[in-house]
Amino acid sequence: MDTSLPFSRLLSEERPVAELWGCQLGTGARSCVVKEGDDFLEHLVLLRTICLGADARDELHVVAVDSKNASGEHRPVPIAALRSSVLPMISLKALELVPPVTFVLQCGAGPVYLSGQRVTLEDDASSEAEEEELLEEDVRDEEDDGESQNKGSSERSE
Known about the structure:
This protein is of the alpha+beta class. Helix content is 25%, strand content 44%. The chain has helices at 7-13, 125-157, and strands at 15-25, 31-34, 42-52, 61-68, 74-82, 89-97, 101-107, 112-122. The strands form 2 sheets. The protein has a 4-stranded antiparallel beta sheet with strand order 1-8-3-6. A 4-stranded antiparallel beta sheet has the order 2-7-4-5, with no helix packed on it. A hairpin with a 5-residue loop joins strand 4 and strand 5 (74-82). The chain is elongated, with a radius of gyration of 23 Å. Residues 1-12 have low confidence and may be disordered.
């Protein structure tokens, strides 16, 4: 299967199992690790919300994500900078991470709450057969379209 497909297409081809996920970052726990599953299935972490707790001080809170990049190195990347008087919460739509991933509170005392979903894509054997069938239909449709266009152009030239 081509892993460069958008997530929405992956969900349509495989049966997703989603569970709510969340963690708290603060002075007691500056980081949170989401580990890989040991079941040989594809796992994703969909981060949806990052918000400050009600008792967070009015200071800058920076949350970063530390995950392997394309060259296999770990580098923390800031994903949110929150301040209770300016921006106490953000909602994310398309932040999809592949475990293992670590969320780190780089500055600020917190508490900062992260929430989202942990999705497991279960392999559905029938989806592969359906995908092959759809590809064959697409090829047939393209061939039929090509023949009808050629037929129409030859009729016009006569």
